[in-house]
Amino acid sequence: MKSNLRKIFASRVFIGGAAAIAIWGVLALLIAAGIFSRSMQSLLIQICYYVTLALSLDLVVGYLGDLSLGHAAFYAVGAYSGCAFAVYTNLPLALKFIGGLLVGGICAAIVGFLISCAILKLRGDYLAIVTLAFGEFVRSIVKIIPGLGGTKGLLGIPSFDSRVVGFTASYIVLVLVIVAIYNFTHSRHGRTVTAIRDNAIAAESVGINIKRTKVLVFTISAFIAGLAGVVSGFYKTSITPGDFDYNVSIEALVMVVLGGMGSIRGTVIASAIIVLLPELLRGMDEYRMLIYAIVLIAMMMIKASPKCRALKEKLDGKINGFRSRFTRKRAK
Amino acid sequence: MKKTARFLSLMIATLMVVLSFAGCGAADNSNVFVLGISGPMTGTASTYGNAVVNGAQIAVDKINAAGGINGYKIKLIYQDDEATVDKAKTAYEKLMDNGMQVFIGCVTSDSSIACNDLIKADGILQITPSASAIEAAVNPNSFRVCFTDPLQGTKMAEYVYNTLGYRKAAACYNQDDSYSTGMYDAFKERFTELGGKIAVEAPFGKDTSDFNAQITKVASSGADFIYLPIYAEKAAQILITADSKGVKLPFVGGDGLDGIMNYLTGDLGKLAENLIFLTPFVSTDTDPKVQAFTNTFIEKYDMTPDQFAADAYDAVYLAKLAIEQAGITAPTAMDNAAVVAAMTQIELDGLTGKMTFDASGEPNKDAKVAKIINGEYVAQ
Amino acid sequence: MQMLISTLIDGLNLGSVYALVALGYSMVYGIAKMLNFAHGDVIMVGIYSIFVCLNMNSLPVPVTMLICVAVCAVLGFTVEKLAYKPLRGSPSLSVLITAIGVSYLLQNLALLFFKSERRFLQNFLQLGSIQIGSFELPVISLVIWGTTLVIMIVLNLLIKYTSMGRAMLAVSEDKGAAQLMGVNVNRTISITFVIGSALAGVAAILYAAKYQNVDPYTGSVFGIKAFAAAVFGGIGSIPGAMIGGLSLGLIEALTIGFLPESLSAVSDGIAYALLVLMLILKPSGLLGKKKVEKV
Q: What number of other Cβ atoms are within 10 A of residue A134's Cβ?
C-alpha cells in the first residue's frame, strides 16, 4: 500500500500534473493580486499560444524531420474558422471558446490532412517550398471568402473579460497540447516518426508505413496549430490576413530551432524567451530580427560542429550515468 | 532525473517571467501629465510611427516651454507595436503600466481596432492621429484627428467630378491594405452615384513589385484619370512605370500620397508634377503656425513633416485643451470622464485646420486639396 | 487585341527578370544541391550598393556596375565560407534552415542600415524605349532578354567545355566519387557560389535599371517568386529556369489583365497556387530530372 502510494507520487503523470497546477496557481495568483503588470499579463497569454504553435511545428520539423515553412496557413485556418464560429453563433462565452477550438482545430486538421496527402511524394527542399507557397496562397484566399472580413479582417471576436480566466483558458489548452504531444511522441507511433526522421529507408524496410505516418503527423500538427490560432483570436479580438504571413512561420521556426528541435521542454522555454525578448532586451527592438537570424545560423552550426557533438555525447554519457545511479537508488 | 530536469526548467522559465516583470517599476508621475503613443517604430511601417512621435514631441516641447498644462509639464511616452495586432495590445498595456493618462494612438488602424476593448474598459481619452478605419474610433471615449477612409473617398469623388470635371476613372488600389480598399469602395460608390464611371480596376497586392500589367490595363481603358488611394511609396513606383510606358493620364489620390516628394527626389520629382491629392496638411502652407512647425521639424529631424506628424501635433494640443476645459488642475486629479466629455466642447485651430468634435469622435473640419507644382505642394 | 499583346509583352518582360533570378537559384541548386534562400537577398544588397554609389559618390555607371557585381560575388563567397561550408555533410534540413537564417540576416542588416523606406534610384541606365508599331517597348527589357539568353548559353558552355565545369558536373553527380577522382569538392562548390552571386549582381543591375527602387524586402519578395519559377521549370535545369521564369511572368500579367475584378484579390496567390499544383502533379518540375533514391 505504502509503496503503491509512493509509486503514484513518483509517477510522471503525477509530477507533471502537479507542476502544471502549481505553475498555474502561482501565475494566476500573481495576476489576480495585481502583482504582474498589465503588459506582463498580456504577454503570458501570448506565450501560451505561441508555445502551442511552436509545439505543433516541432512535431513536423523536430520529430518528423521535414521542414514546413507554411505553418502560418494552419494557424490561419484555425484562427479564422474557430473565430468565425464564435462570432456567428449565439452561445455562452465558454461554449463559444470550446466550440471555436473544436471547429478551428478540425478545420485546420482537414486542411493539413489534404495538403499532406497531396505532397506525400515530396521531400526536403521541395516540401519546404510547397508549404511556403501554400501558406501564401491561404493568406490570399482568405481575403475573398465572404464573412471573414476581407482585407480588414474578422472583427468583434469575443474575449474573456477577466484576465485570470483568459490566461487560464489559454493555459489549459497549452497543457492539454503538451500532454497530448508527450504521449504521442512516447507511443509506438512516436517512435515510428523518429525512425522515419533518422533513416526513412531503414524504417520502410522494417515495415513502417511512411506515408500513413507522415499524414498522421501533419494532421495532428495542423490540428494543434489550429488550436493556437483560435486561442490567439480570442486574445486579439480581431484577426487580419496580414497576421499570418511568412514571418509568422519563420518566428515559429526560430522557436523550434532554438529549443533544440524535437524537444518539448526546449520548445516551451525557447518560445517563452522569444515572446519575452522585447521585454528582456528593452531598447533593442531594432536588433530583434537580427538576433533571430543569428540564432538560426548559430544553432545549425553548433549542431554540425564536431567539437560540439563530442561535448554533447560526453554530457549525455554523464547524464545517463547519473540517471542509472538515480534509478537504481530508487529501485531499492 | 528527467522529471527533475523538466521541473527545474519549467521553474526557471517561471522565474524568468517573474524577474522580467520585476524590472518594470513605474516612475513617479505625480507632477506630470502623461501622454502615450503606440505605433510602429521599427519594421515596414516605421515611417508612420516615427513621424507621429516626432510631431507629438514638437508639440509637447512647445507646450512645456510655454508653462505646460495648468503649470504641470507633459511627459510623452511611447511604445513600438510594429503595426502587429498582438504587439499593439502589449504596447498599450505597457503604456498603462507606465501611468498613461491620455492615449495618442494607435498610429495604424488594425492595431487600434485590436485595442478597442481595452481602451473602452479603461475609459481614458483616446485621440488617434492617424487610424482612419471607421472601426478604429467607435468607443465613446475615442476621437480622431484624421478623416476616415470612406470620407476621404467620398470627398475626392466629389472634388474630381465637380471641380476637375472628370467622368471616367481608372483605379489602382492595394487590395492588401484596408486603408486603400476602404477609401476606394467609398470613392466608387460616390463617383458612380454622381454619374461618373469606373472604367477599370487594376488592384495589386502588398508583394507586387512590377506594375506594368496594371498600367497596361489602365492605359487601354480610355479613362480620364487614374485614382490612387494608396501610400506614396507604391504610388511612386506606379508613376515611374507609367512614365516608362508613356502613359500621361492625370493622377489623383488621398492623403497617403503626402510625402511622395521624399521618395521622388532629384530628376524623378518631375514625375509627380500635377499630382492632386486630398490632405489635411500642406507643409508649404503660408499659415505662420504651419511654417513654424515645418521649420522646427526640418531643423530637428532633417526631413519635411508629413500629415502624420501634423496630425500628432494637433492630437497633443487637443489633449491639452480637453484637460484644461475639464478643469483638471493637477495630474493627480485626472478625471477621465470629464476629459472625454470636454472633447465635444473644445475647438482647435490646428495645423490640419479648424476642428470641433461631436460625440461620434469624428472631426468636423475642411479637407484641403493639394497639387504638386514645380516640385512643391501647393494648396488648391 | 491591342491590350492582349501589350499584356503579353509585359508578361515576357517581367518573366525575363524572373528567369534571370531563377538562373542563379537553379545553378547553385544543380551543383551544390542546396537551396540558396539568400540569393534574392544578395540581389537586394547589390541594388543597395548601386544606390550608395549613385547617391553618395556619383561614380561613372560602368564603375558602379562593376562594384555591384563585385559586392555580390564577395558577399556570396563570404556567406558560403562562413555559413554553408561548416554544414557540408549535414542533413538538408540544417542547411535549409541556415539558408533561411542568412536570408533573414541580410534583410535585417539592410533594414538596420537603410531603414524600411523604399529608396528610389536616379538616372541609372535610363535607356528610354523604342516604338514598334503602336507598342512602346522599353530598351531595358530587350537588354534583359539578351543578357538572360547570353548568360544561359555561357553557363551551358562553361559547364560542358571547361575542366571547372566538368568538375561541377561531377560534384553534382556524386560528391564522394568526385573527391576520389581528384576534384577539389570544396573549391568547386565555392566557385559555384561565387558565379551564382555574380549572377545575382547582374540581376541587381538590371532590376535597378528596370524598376529604379529598392527596399530591404525587395530581394525576398522577388526572390520567392523567382524561386517558384525555378522550381516550376525544374530546379537544377538551366533552360528550365528560363521557361519557368517566362511562364510565371506571363501567368501573372495575364491574371492581372484579364481576371474578373471580383477575383482580383487572389492574383498574388495564383503564382503560389500554380506552384503547389505543379509540384503535386510533377514534383521534379517541367524539365527537371527525376531523382532515384538509393540506399
A: 26
- Are B87 and B108 spatial neighbours (Cβ–Cβ below 8 Å)? no
Residue B226 has pLDDT above 80, yes or no: yes
Q: Per the CATH hierarchy, to which homologous superfamily does domain B149-279 belong?
A: Response regulator (3.40.50.2300)
Name the residue with cell 509585359. C10
Task: Note which residues in 170-199 of chain B have CB less than 8 A from chain C.
Answer: 175-176
The complex's ipTM works out to 0.86
Minimum Cα–Cα distance from B212: chain C residue: C10
Architecture of domain C2-116+129-281: Orthogonal Bundle (1.10)
Specify the fold of B32-147+288-365: Rossmann fold (3.40.50)
Q: Do C268 and A151 touch (CB under 8 A)?
A: no
| pLDDT confidence of residue A140 | 83
Residues A76, A104: Cα–Cα separation, whole Å? 9
State pLDDT tens for residues B109-157. 889 998 998 999 999 999 999 898 888 888 999 999 988 899 889 999 9
Q: What are the CA-CA distances from residue A104 to residues A76, A81, A100, B179 (Å)?
A: 9, 5, 6, 28
Q: If pLDDT is split at 50, 70 and 90, which confidence band does A247 have?
A: confident
Which chain A residues contact residue C268 at CB under 8 A? Answer: 136, 140
Q: Which CATH architecture has domain A37-280?
A: Orthogonal Bundle (1.10)
Spans of chain C, pLDDT less than 70: 57, 261-262, 264-265, 267, 289-295
The per-residue pLDDT for range A125-153, each reduced to its tens digit, is: 778 888 888 888 888 888 888 888 888 88
- Domains B32-147+288-365 and B149-279 agree in fold: yes
Q: Which of C245, C33, C86 is nearest to A124 (CA)?
A: C33
Write the single-letter amino acid at B299.
E
CB contact under 8 A, A122 and C279: yes
Q: What is the distance, to the nearest Å, from the Cα of residue A58 to the centroid of all Cα atoms in its chain?
A: 7
Distance CA C170, CA B73 (A): 74
Q: What pLDDT shows up at residue B74?
A: 93
Mutate: best of C103, C279, C290, C292, partner A, most A CBs <10 A: C279
